[in-house]
């Protein structure tokens, strides 16, 4: 039984708290990347919310996250696109 969905503010606050507790580690980033990707895939959050929350996290696993979303390995061109998006 679903008792409600997290709001963007609630998720942002949770991310910030965990970053304060654990620092900007790859482990924290990867756990949150997976959690946010699942929320996006199941329609609990929209893409702009995902992007805003994702921006709070350290860079880690960008290529793997794209592969998860596509359900296939990324091409060298897609890998370059991920790298370029990090530099913006």
Structural overview:
This protein is an all-alpha fold and 88 residues long. Helices cover 67% and strands 0% of the residues. It has helices at 8-22, 26-41, 47-54, 62-70, 76-86.
Number of DSSP-assigned strands:
0
Helix content: 55-70%
Q: Output the number of helix runs.
A: 5
Low-confidence stretches: none
User: What is the straight-line distance between the termini?
Assistant: 40 Å
Protein structure class = mainly alpha
Provide a short characterization of the protein structure.
The chain is mainly alpha-helical.
Write out key terms for the chains shown:
88 residues; mainly alpha; 67% helix
Helix and strand arrangement:
Blueprint: H1 8-22, H2 26-41, H3 47-54, H4 62-70, H5 76-86
Helix pairs in contact: 2-3
């Amino acid at each position: 039984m679903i008792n409600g969905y997290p709001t963007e503010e609630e998720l942002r606050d949770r991310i910030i708290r965990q970053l304060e507790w654990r620092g900007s580690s790859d482990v924290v980033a990867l756990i949150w990347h997976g959690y946010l990707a699942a929320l996006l895939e199941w329609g609990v959050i929209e893409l702009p919310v995902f992007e805003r929350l994702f921006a709070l996290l350290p860079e880690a696993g960008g290529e793997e996250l794209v592969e998860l979303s596509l359900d296939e390995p990324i091409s060298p061109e897609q890998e370059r696109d991920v790298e370029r998006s990090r530099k913006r």
